[in-house]
Amino acid sequence: MLPKNLKKAFIKPLQGALKGREIAVLYNPTEYSVEKSNQYQMNALPGLANPVAQFVSGNADTLTMELLFDTYTDHQSEDVRNYTGLIARLLEIDSDTHAPPVCQFVWGDGGGHFSFNAIIERMTQKFTMFLDDGTPVRATLNLTLKEYRTVTEQLQDVRPQSADRTKRVVFKESDRLWLLAAREYNDPGRWRFIAEKNNLDNPRTVPIGRELIIPPLDGENELR
Q: Which of 142, 174, 186, 205 meets the CB 3.0–4.6 Å disulfide criterion with 124?
């Protein structure tokens, strides 16, 4: 269960007309969910009963939560849309960036600090309490935020592993080029790189006993 004395959560646009403004939630969420997933491609290889899973890319983390907005009790029955509307604006196209702004969700401080840079992908507003004149004074917002990271940030974190020097192996009867690529590069899909470096016209008919060069990945091939 989340502690009740956490500092008030807020959403801060990092771009556009509202850049730097802290849009506070009226009540901290009681829980939030972070979803992580990866994308794989299934490759059918000759001689195998099942396809081989090849990693393609990671998917952006997804943060979901429900927020309560209530102006009836502590805000003199002010129109609750004055608060929910600020968050709704973050889904609109900004005139400066020509896209909805990247935002930062921040909650807590110190060891309990949670920060998430994202775009707001989806928001559902549900108004649940009204004054006699129809003014809404209570609402729940269901938010879905997609993590935002620049290409530079992602490349700094992950670099494909490669053999650090050229190797030579003797091709055995049990060998396959995709097996060599999986062993040396952690990626069976790079068998083509080995085939090209060894001038193999037909990688399915590599002669048993042939010596193959297993080169390190160069700058042109390491991010393929």
A: 142
Per the listing, tokens 């196209």 go with 93
Q: Determine the average pLDDT of the residues in 81-105.
A: 93
- Residue in 81, 102, 93 with CA at minimum distance from that of residue 145: 102
Amino acid at position 51, single letter: P
Question: Could you give the CA distance from residue 122 to residue 64 in angstroms, rounded to a whole number?
Answer: 10
- The residue that leads in pLDDT, 135 or 207, is 135
CB atoms within 10 A of CB 111: 5
Distance CA 203, CA 121 (A): 45
pLDDT at position 178 is: 87
Q: Which two tokens stand for residue 94?
A: 């900004």
Side chain identity, residue 104: Q
Q: What is the pLDDT of residues 189-205, one digit of tens each?
A: 888 889 998 998 888 88
**Among candidate residues 32, 58, 60, the one with its CA nearest the CA of residue 147:** 60
Q: Please tell me the predicted confidence (pLDDT) of residue 133.
A: 95
What percentage of the chain reaches a pLDDT higher than 90? 42
Angle CA 180–181–183, to nearest 5: 65
**Cα separation, 100 vs 121, whole angstroms:** 9
Distances (CA, A) of 128 to 30, 31, 69, 138: 18, 20, 10, 6
Apex CA 143: angle with CA 55 and CA 141, to 5°? 165
Do the beta carbons of residue 185 and residue 164 sit within 8 Å?
A: no
CB of 70 within 8 A of CB of 78? no
